[in-house]
Specification:
By secondary structure, the protein is an all-alpha fold. It has one domain (about 5-170). About 80% of the residues lie in helices and about 0% in strands. The chain is built from seven helices and no strands. It has helices at about 5-25, 35-45, 45-65, 75-100, 105-130, 140-165, 165-170. The longest helix is centred in the C-terminal third of the chain and has 28 residues, at about 140-165.
């Protein structure tokens, strides 16, 4: 594969990662891991999606522990690892529904919903072990869901705009039809 081809296939993952990094800088602890996992599942092959989601999680953790002053203790490190594991699990759940589908489709919405449930369930399971179940109130879970949903729509629209405006760089424009 030529250097140009490698860069061409990396344009969307790099764009998604840049948006996530800017989001980390702006919103610190409200990183939309489920939205990012769903977008990766719907728009990338498995290996590229794993590298993208894993890379976004790693950069988020570096920013958190390096810039935002997350404590360097077992509790914070454990939660960081749990977020990474839950994000990758959300990716694999989303791929069951969204792989090969149009980004703006009912299958992608179903992928997002099931990935969100899996993500939150895994994190709650970890909270039962490590502590922190008090953050799993309906109001907080709804706030996280709304945040992820807004990121999913916003980045999904960005993807569609990039495909329409520069199809040579980001691929053909999506078809807007329910599946």
């Amino acid at each position: 594969m030529t250097q140009e081809r490698k860069f061409a296939t990396a344009r969307w993952p790099l764009t998604l990662a840049a948006a996530a990094i800017l989001g980390s800088l702006a919103l610190a602890c409200m990183m939309p891991f489920v939205a990012l996992a769903t977008l990766a599942a719907a728009t990338m092959g498995r290996a590229q999606a794993v590298v993208t989601v894993g890379g976004i999680w790693a950069v988020n953790q570096l920013l958190g522990f390096g810039m935002f002053g997350y404590p360097h203790d077992a509790y914070a490190l454990g939660w960081g690892a749990a977020l990474g594991a839950a994000s990758l699990a959300a990716l694999f759940v989303a791929r069951r529904f969204a792989a090969g589908s149009q980004l703006l489709s009912l299958r992608t919405l179903a992928a997002f919903g099931t990935a969100f449930v899996a993500y939150e369930a895994l994190l709650f399971g970890y909270a039962l072990f490590a502590g922190g179940t008090g953050t799993f109130t309906p109001a907080i879970i709804f706030q996280i869901f709304a945040n992820d949903a807004m990121w999913l729509v916003g980045l999904g629209l960005l993807h569609a705009i990039l495909q329409r405006s520069v199809p040579g760089l980001f691929g053909p424009a999506p078809q807007l039809r329910p599946r």
